[in-house]
Specification:
Number of helices of chain A: 18
Largest sheet of chain A: 6 strands, mixed
Radius of gyration of chain A: 25 Å
Mean pLDDT of chain A: 87
Largest sheet of chain B: 2 strands, antiparallel
Helix content of chain B: over 70%
Number of strands of chain B: 4
Structural class of chain A: alpha/beta
Mean pLDDT of chain B: 90
Number of strands of chain A: 22
CATH class of chain B: Mainly Alpha
Low-confidence stretches of chain A: none
Number of helices of chain B: 14
Oligomer: heterodimer
Radius of gyration of chain B: 20 Å
Chain lengths: 497, 329
């Protein structure tokens, strides 16, 4: 079988971060290739280079043996390469048919749309792949899972030769996964080439002919899906031992519980309970969408709880909004730095002091500019923020330095309990090491920390204890000894609930 | 010691540099207008005309300061023209009834503050779009002004305290400086102090920049979001009182174009329409750019219709330049 896609020596960097390092990736015509690796391994980036969303920095792409020098989304589409996205934006007010056929001009006659023909053909397509959706239904009335099928149908409608599925089962329940498996089986019969990205091991074993394993922007190995054992695959996915960037760990200050949550439940998280001790760094591990961020948001009072209790220093507290949470000594450094943690257009100084304006104002709310500038100057100097002056807008800083500003802001609030949600996402190695150092320093000051991270290694390198989440549930708790066993951690992360 | 002074001077230098970088377009347009004005007619740069300019722009300036704060917070207030009319008629009427300037002024401002609070509460607590809320208030408050007066202007000339009150509108301090311009400058200083030197101002900027981040910082956003609307309505109230003092009557038709003029001035002055960015000097420049257009064309006896056309053109042109500049940087 010849290669329908061949990518050679692909490199792609975002600023200082090398997302793809000299990648070789080939897919044979008609095969199903699974692409696996931890979050941030570079799977999605590689696919975005293939579908023309990102321009590669270097390397060559051959489609059907011919080199494609320039690739953008339109060229990729014309070459028959299509991708089913994790979250495809839909027009809720329009029908299934209109969403699927959007952009196809073949149904227009003299500028008028032939809705009946369009509807009939769409229904035929849906029936052919046994997708249980009425072509006439309004998209807004359908569930997230059905919307996922519509975005798949949207791709199938254009009859591509290569289809990339990026985590298509993330929003699907078991019975719906079966529908998807059937679709893929029919596609295989029709000799369509499939690239399948997933975290679900069972699907990968069931579907794929071959498996490409990626880690840290590099292809580790390509495996034939014959006599393959789950554990071996996991070993390939992780491999590397703990790096030198983690600092020596301090000790937990006491066994006393500073935060205890019990049975936290809302639309996303189900019965989440855990304890945080004084001076402890507690990890929350899990895949993307496992409910980690939502747990943090629920504790902070951003999302409403249906049930559950939160105790701080043993006393039950009511947290209705972030203002209450901050008053009780909690502070969250959110996952999405740009959208949630900072006011990008305002200066560094204003961003940092926002978390505790009362520390730089008098009783009447009048700012003491001199005191503010001094305090913040010292703080950013201690954190080694690289910047022009503290008057520069935060948007001018690099990702790592922005994260330091978020940390500075959190420190200014003087909380007892800090929640860091993916503090090292999109940050280069040097800045990471500094951030890990800061976490240790905070612990030395008696703060208790919750660290949410997608990277197993980061959790292992920094945390004293970790809980693992999957689909909104806590699937396990591991102590420092057990955490060293990566396989055990992954078992919890992929545990079916 | 020497090192410190060096730092300070480079600090001021870099402040000025950053300021000019941000405000290049409005400053440039204002300077152009002044140059063009003085070339077109010798009457433009005379002390008398400049005094007139200040007197004419005083009430617009005060109202624009309120609009500036509302836009800075990421909102807008379309009702300021009607609120100004309410303030104007109640001020005149209270003068006639009580003969007490303090009662009249405070009474008018309290009524305005109440209207602003209603705006603010609906925007902040019920999360209705400020455009819609204040559009409704615009109609409602205009209705109050017409209903209360039976659509006839109220003259306060016969009130006993008329002499003192007219000093606000037409008097001159030390026989030279128009009282109105002094009040205008006091208002500018107060608003500058609030937005730059208080936690209220800091939070208003931040809410306009990214409400979500402010909320997660533990600040009660829905409480603070009320303030800009009260503030804006009180500014419109002060503007109404100044206008009443200058014109001699409280008319329910006052402030028909006020909201448009103020939005234009604020935006021409470089304040981001989505909030979070902008400074008070831009507002001052914006008000004077629009004021000078009117003033110049009046001096040259151009009728008011082409004046409107030119005004529209300059507003859009200034914002186009700013947009292009922002895209480049």
């Amino acid at each position: 079988m010849s290669n329908i896609i061949e990518m050679k020596g692909i490199c792609k960097s975002f600023g200082a971060v090398k997302a793809l390092k000299d990648i070789d990736f080939a897919v044979r015509a008609g095969e199903t290739m699974a692409l696996v690796g931890e979050n941030g391994a570079g799977k999605s980036t590689l696919m975005k280079v293939l579908t023309g969303v990102y321009a590669k920095d270097s390397g060559t792409i051959l489609i059907n043996g011919e080199e494609v020098r320039k690739i953008n989304t339109v060229i990729a589409k014309n070459l028959g390469i299509a991708q089913v996205y994790q979250q495809f934006e839909m027009m809720d007010e329009l029908s299934v048919t209109e969403n699927i056929c959007l952009g196809d001009k073949s149904f227009s006659k003299h500028g008028l749309v032939q809705f009946k023909t369009m509807m009939r053909q769409t229904q035929e397509l849906l029936d052919h792949y046994h997708i249980p959706i009425d072509a006439n239904a309004k998209v807004g009335t359908l569930s997230a899972a059905m919307k996922q099928f519509i975005s798949i149908a949207r791709v199938l409608y254009r009859k591509p030769r290569v289809i990339v599925f990026d985590e298509p089962t993330a929003v699907l329940s078991d019975s719906e996964v079966h529908i998807l498996m059937d679709i893929i089986a029919s596609l295989k019969k029709e000799k369509v080439t499939i690239i399948y990205i997933s975290h679900r091991m069972d699907e990968i074993f069931q579907l794929s002919d071959r498996i490409t394993v990626m880690r840290d922007g590099v292809v580790i190995t390509v495996l034939e899906n014959k006599n393959l054992v789950k554990d071996d695959l996991i070993t390939h996915m992780l491999g590397k031992t703990l790096g030198a960037m983690y600092v020596t760990r301090g000790k937990i200050r006491s066994e006393q519980c500073v935060l205890e949550v019990e049975g936290l439940t809302n639309d996303v998280i189900k019965d989440v309970s855990f304890k945080l001790r004084e001076g402890e760094i507690l990890g929350i591990a899990g895949l993307v969408n496992s409910g980690r961020t939502e747990t943090a948001r629920a504790i902070m009072g951003v999302d409403k709880l249906k049930s559950g209790t939160i105790k701080i220093n043993g006393v039950p507290v009511k947290i209705k909004n972030p203002t209450d949470a901050v008053r009780h000594g909690l502070f969250l450094a959110p996952e999405d730095r740009k959208a949630q943690a900072m006011v990008l257009c305002r200066p560094i100084r204003e961003n940092i002091s926002l978390s505790k304006l009362s520390s730089v104002t008098n009783r009447l709310g009048i700012l003491n500019s001199k005191k503010e500038a001094e305090t913040i100057d010292n703080l950013v100097r201690a954190l080694k923020v690289k910047m022009d002056t503290i008057e520069s807008p935060v948007q001018d800083l690099s990702g790592g330095n922005q994260q330091k500003i978020v940390i500075a802001k959190a420190l200014t609030a003087q909380p007892n309990i800090l929640i860091f949600d993916e503090p090292t996402q999109g940050i280069d190695v040097g800045a990471r090491a500094e951030i890990y150092g800061l976490l240790e320093k905070l612990r030395a000051d008696g703060k208790s920390i919750i660290l949410i991270s997608s990277e197993t290694e980061e959790i292992q390198g920094t945390c004293d204890r970790t809980i693992v989440m999957r689909s909104g549930h806590v699937t396990g708790e591991l102590n420092a000894e057990e955490m060293k066993d990566t396989k055990l951690m992954l078992q919890y992360m992929y545990k079916d609930v | 010691m020497g090192n410190k002074t060096l730092n300070a001077s480079s600090g001021i230098g870099s402040h000025l540099k950053r300021y000019l970088k941000e405000q290049a377009i409005p400053v440039g347009v204002l300077l152009c207008m002044i140059v063009i004005g003085s070339l077109l007619t010798p009457k433009f740069l005379t002390p008398l005309n400049l005094q007139n300019l200040f007197i004419q722009q005083a009430s617009n300036m005060v109202a624009a300061l309120g609009m500036f704060v509302a836009i800075l917070s990421g909102g807008i207030d379309l009702s300021i023209g009607s609120v100004m009319a309410v303030s104007s008629v109640f001020c005149a009427s209270l003068l006639m009834m009580t003969n007490n300037i303090l009662v009249a002024v405070l009474g008018a401002l309290v009524i305005c503050a109440v209207l602003g609070t209603v705006n603010g509460l609906i925007v902040a607590k019920l999360r209705v779009a400020p455009f819609i809320v204040t559009l409704g208030m615009m109609e409602f408050a205009r209705g109050i002004a017409y209903w209360y007066t039976n659509s006839a202007p109220i003259s306060w000339k016969n009130a006993e305290c008329a002499g003192t009150f007219s000093f606000i509108g037409k008097g001159r301090l030390f026989g030279a400086i128009p009282t109105l311009s002094v009040i205008m400058i006091i208002c500018i200083v107060i608003v500058w102090f609030i937005v730059k030197k208080t936690s209220l101002g800091r939070i208003i900027y931040a809410i306009g920049g990214n409400e979500e981040a402010v909320k997660l910082s533990g600040i009660n956003v829905s409480k603070w979001k009320i303030a800009p609307y009260i503030f804006c309505a009180v500014c419109a109230g002060i503007a109404g009182i100044l206008l009443t003092a200058r014109l001699g009557v409280g008319a329910p038709t006052n402030g028909e174009d006020l909201a448009n003029d103020c939005i234009a001035a604020v935006v021409v002055g470089g304040t981001s329409f989505t909030g979070g960015k902008g400074n008070i000097s831009g507002v001052i420049i914006g008000v004077f750019i629009l004021g000078i257009i009117n003033n110049l064309l009046d001096l040259m006896n151009v009728s008011s219709y082409p004046q409107m056309m030119l005004k529209g053109t300059i507003i859009v042109a200034a914002v186009i330049f700013s947009t292009i500049k922002d895209k480049k940087s």
